[in-house]
Amino acid sequence: GESTAQYSARMAAESAAGGASLVGIAAVVLGILAITGIHPVMLVLVALLCLGGAMLVAGAAISARMISALR
Fold first, then answer.
1. Residue 46: left if φ>0, alpha if ψ -120 to 50, beta else—which one?
2. What distance in Å separates the CA atoms of residue 56 and residue 67, rounded to the nearest whole number?
3. What is the pLDDT of residues 18-63, one digit of tens each?
4. Measuring CA to CA, how many Å separate 55 from each of 3, 30, 44, 50, 70?
5. How far apart are CA 65 and CA 59, in angstroms?
6. Which three-class secondary structure state does DSSP give residue 2?
7. How many alpha carbons lie under 13 Å from residue 26 in its C-beta half-sphere?
8. Closest Cα partner for 60 from 1, 25, 4, 20?
């Protein structure tokens, strides 16, 4: 049953989910470091940039999965 496009979309969605959890952990670590006073503004900005990138990748993976499901 599963076509190559559907398999690829499913793998991309699973990978995006795993990557998002790693980015979430990294953002928490950066936030803790920022609280301790180590370049707080820069660390918070980097954490937000990472979270935004993870959201972009996750959204693209979910969109690819939805498109492959509709075909």
1. alpha
2. 16
3. 888 899 999 999 999 999 999 999 999 999 999 999 888 888 877 8
4. 26, 17, 16, 9, 22
5. 10
6. coil
7. 17
8. 20
Alpha helices in the chain (DSSP H): 4-35, 40-70
Model's pTM, two decimal places?
0.73
Residue 2 contacts by C-beta under 8 Å, 6 or more apart in sequence? 10
Q: Is 40 exposed, middle or buried (0-12, 13-18, 19+ CB in 10 A)?
A: middle
The CA distance from 39 to 8, in Å, is: 40
Compute and round to an integer the Cα radius of gyration of the chain.
16
pLDDT, residue 14, reads 79
